[in-house]
């Protein structure tokens, strides 16, 4: 189950402190409808045969990791899990070999990979178009983790991660606010003061013997300040199959409701279960309705590929024609979803087709292509590759609790697996000792940058940003490394 982990799923439920050790277009005029990430159009050029300098002068981030990924072929997930049947999954210990060199806090930051969708939402005057962009953003956050081959490190209590991207126009801060249960809180804002994005993530994990399911917990909130709008939603359920034998494969299912608390509009997205012969694998279908429950548009696609929208009448007419055996237009599969020849013998549903294009549809989003060497870098996207980058002079301004300073993650990224494993054990032992000391002195853990409160839009319990992080007063940060 650890080979294809979702952003919000199994990552924060393991490695407790008990540890030791292009899609091609069909024959229709798609190019006129494409509305893709403007940041992908930034041209680059080679300088001195090595360094890529962007023509717009924006700082270039690294494009590869210091060391290639190691092989996991000699390790068995089941050998670990068979000892843990009946135990609480948040207490399962996983060896470092199953990790990727990122903390879960850094993986949460991957929500921001498709921030251009938030920018689109901010720029649209039409509330329907804003909701379409927000829906695409919610789906893109799930897609960014497809085919990742390792689990992120469980954050230590008090661990933080900050990311400022002037080129993308945002800054982001997160903190591990609870260890049992593991809860991660995050807050992001646009540098132009155009949006606020925040939430907390703490999935409930269930082990069913042959599969592991992550039921989402925690509210995600996006505020578009210019329009005085707030949207909230919760992620779909994720399930990983073939834990005991066969090829591990992942599906997302369940209903995601995105609510615009200002207009009363709602987007209902159905992440469909795999179904017989894998016909529904990866499919997303839904609609946007107004406060009077009138359907305004239909959204369809795959969370591993792309998302389209069209008007309800056109969609229903097409579907009726399809059932009568009418001509279907299909999009050719992208490289991201082509099935490997080695998968033929595996117990994994085959993808029978890709997205069936409804004429007149508008493309809302498509998945980013991974870099050519991604398979040697834990299947990281270009955005993910840059997350643990520690630039010159950065240590002097980072909080001492920042993920980039974790010695186990840093050593793993550099290929020093033995040192990384020992450091991981040392850090977890230090965390246990600190907890025992607090218990002895009857002292409660105090979070630094977030506090528990009530979401102002849903009325439910939430972790809210207390402010002040970017003032950079880190004198009272805990010593966790």
Principal-axis shape: globular
Question: What is the number of beta strands?
Answer: 21
Report helical residue fraction: 10-25%
Q: How many helices?
A: 8
What is the strand and helix layout of this fold?
Blueprint: E1 44-47, E2 51-54, H1 77-81, E3 99-103, H2 104-108, H3 116-123, H4 127-143, E4 151-153, E5 160-165, E6 170-178, E7 183-190, E8 195-201, E9 204-207, E10 211-215, E11 220-224, E12 229-233, E13 237-241, E14 249-260, E15 266-271, E16 283-289, E17 295-302, E18 306-310, H5 312-323, E19 362-366, H6 382-385, H7 407-413, H8 417-440, E20 450-454, E21 461-465
Parallel strand pairs: 3-4
Antiparallel strand pairs: 1-2, 5-6, 6-7, 7-8, 8-11, 9-10, 10-13, 11-12, 12-14, 13-14, 14-15, 15-16, 16-17, 17-18, 18-19, 20-21
Helix pairs in contact: 3-4, 7-8
Keywords: Coiled coil, Lipid transport, Lipid-binding, Transport
InterPro entries: OSBP_sf (IPR037239), Oxysterol-bd (IPR000648), Oxysterol-bd_CS (IPR018494)
GO molecular function: cholesterol binding
């Amino acid at each position: 189950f650890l080979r294809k982990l979702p952003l919000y799923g199994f990552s924060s439920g393991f490695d407790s402190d008990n540890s030791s050790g292009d899609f091609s277009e069909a024959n229709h005029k798609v190019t006129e409808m494409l509305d893709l990430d403007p940041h992908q159009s930034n041209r680059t050029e080679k300088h001195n045969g090595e360094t890529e300098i962007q023509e717009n002068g924006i700082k270039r981030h690294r494009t590869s990791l210091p060391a290639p990924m190691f092989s996991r072929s000699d390790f068995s997930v089941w050998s670990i899990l068979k000892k843990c049947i009946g135990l609480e999954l948040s207490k399962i210990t996983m060896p470092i070999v199953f990790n990727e060199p990122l903390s879960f806090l850094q993986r949460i930051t991957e929500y921001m990979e498709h921030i251009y969708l938030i920018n689109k939402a901010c720029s649209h005057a039409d509330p329907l178009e804003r909701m379409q962009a927000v829906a695409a953003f919610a789906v893109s956050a799930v897609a960014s983790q497809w085919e990742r081959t390792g689990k992120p490190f469980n954050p230590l209590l008090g661990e933080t991660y900050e990311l400022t991207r002037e080129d993308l126009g945002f800054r982001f801060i997160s903190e591990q606010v609870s260890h049992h249960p593991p809860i991660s809180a995050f807050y992001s804002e646009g540098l132009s003061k155009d949006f606020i994005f925040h939430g907390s993530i703490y999935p409930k994990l269930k082990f069913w013997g042959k599969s592991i399911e992550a039921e989402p917990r925690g509210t995600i909130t996006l505020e578009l300040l210019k329009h005085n709008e707030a949207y909230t939603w919760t992620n779909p359920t994720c399930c990983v199959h073939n834990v005991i034998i066969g090829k591990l494969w992942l599906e997302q299912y369940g209903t995601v409701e995105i609510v615009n608390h200002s207009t009363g509009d709602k987007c209902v997205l159905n992440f469909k279960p795999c179904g017989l012969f894998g016909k529904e694998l990866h499919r997303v279908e839904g609609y946007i309705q107004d406060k009077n429950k009138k359907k305004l548009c239909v959204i369809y696609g795959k969370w591993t590929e792309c998302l389209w929208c069209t008007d309800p009448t056109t969609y229903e007419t097409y579907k009726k024609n399809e059932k009568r055996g009418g001509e279907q237009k299909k999009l050719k599969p992208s490289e991201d979803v082509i099935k490997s020849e080695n998968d033929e013998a595996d117990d994994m549903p085959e993808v029978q087709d890709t997205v069936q294009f409804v004429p007149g549809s508008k493309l809302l989003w498509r998945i980013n292509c991974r870099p050519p060497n991604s398979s040697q870098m834990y299947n990281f996207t270009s955005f993910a590759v840059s997350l643990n980058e520690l630039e010159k002079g950065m240590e002097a301004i980072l909080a001492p609790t920042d993920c980039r300073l974790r010695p186990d993650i840093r050593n793993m990224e550099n290929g020093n697996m033995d040192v990384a494993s020992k450091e991981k054990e040392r850090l977890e032992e230090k965390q246990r000792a600190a907890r025992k000391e607090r218990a002895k002195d009857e002292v409660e853990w105090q979070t630094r940058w977030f506090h528990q409160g009530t979401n102002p839009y849903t009325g439910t319990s939430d972790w809210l940003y207390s402010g002040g992080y970017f003032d950079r007063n880190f004198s009272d940060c805990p010593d966790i490394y």
